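Task: sequence design from structure.
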């Protein structure tokens, strides 16, 4: 049976693409996804580098595509060189932010406390959030997966139902991001099922980590996988659209 939770397919472009590539991507994506469904049956979200948010928001007008910033500052304004406030993000046409991505945690050293501050600021500033969690290979091999996830998710427990309704959790095993090695459908479901018990039935849970057209359907067929956060395979419209179609097929929606 189709999930009652609307599938969400999010593209995280990271530090890739140029301005000249934006229009062809949008045109090609919605040529590939022609027909009813986008925006109604499922959601499409793109997180470009911040310098392209405004240009992409213009190209997305009239199309069922939402935009996310790849991070969000901890305050509404102030002396925070290099940060973007929630208001700035909304001002250029985005209404989502990615927070807690493993590259922010493990490459740039963002702590759970800092990620929580960003989360509070984003929600207070009217944004919706994709909140990323996941364990390293060493933590998985040491059987610490669920302890790590519980620590990372703990900050969500302080929000009321209205705030939690604006949060989507993305499980991204660090050992599967950009490595070509992905969690099996069973591994993904095991973790998503644990998060579901922790967070409740309404919260949407995305899987991220080397998602590709050939594994999208089997991953999405799992009961607690509600969509994907896609990195490298989202940089071109055709493979990203193929992932979306595969995900919808996994839920019996296409």
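Answer:
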């Amino acid at each position: 049976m189709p999930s009652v939770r609307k599938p969400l397919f999010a593209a995280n472009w990271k530090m890739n693409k140029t301005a000249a590539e934006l229009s062809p991507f949008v045109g090609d994506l919605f040529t590939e996804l022609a027909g009813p469904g986008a925006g109604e049956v499922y959601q499409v979200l793109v997180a470009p580098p911040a310098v392209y948010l405004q240009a992409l928001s213009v190209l997305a007008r009239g199309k069922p595509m939402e935009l996310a910033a790849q991070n969000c500052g901890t305050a509404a304004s102030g002396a925070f060189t290099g940060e973007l406030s929630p208001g700035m993000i909304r001002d250029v046409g985005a209404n989502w932010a990615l927070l807690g991505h493993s590259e922010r945690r493990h490459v740039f050293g963002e702590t759970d406390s800092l990620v929580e501050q960003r989360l509070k600021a984003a929600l207070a500033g009217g944004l919706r959030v994709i909140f990323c969690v996941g364990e390293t290979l060493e933590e998985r091999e040491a059987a610490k997966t669920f302890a790590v996830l519980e620590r990372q998710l703990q900050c969500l427990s302080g929000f009321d139902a209205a705030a939690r309704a604006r949060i989507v959790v993305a499980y991204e095993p660090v050992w599967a991001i950009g490595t070509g090695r992905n969690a099996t459908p069973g591994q993904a479901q095991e973790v998503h099922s644990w998060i579901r018990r922790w967070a409740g039935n309404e919260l949407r849970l995305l899987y991220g980590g080397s998602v590709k057209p050939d594994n999208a359907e089997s991953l999405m067929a799992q009961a607690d996988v509600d969509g994907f956060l896609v990195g490298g395979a989202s940089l071109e419209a055709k493979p990203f659209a193929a992932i979306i179609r595969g995900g919808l097929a996994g839920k019996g929606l296409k």
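DSSP finds eleven helices and eight strands in the chain.
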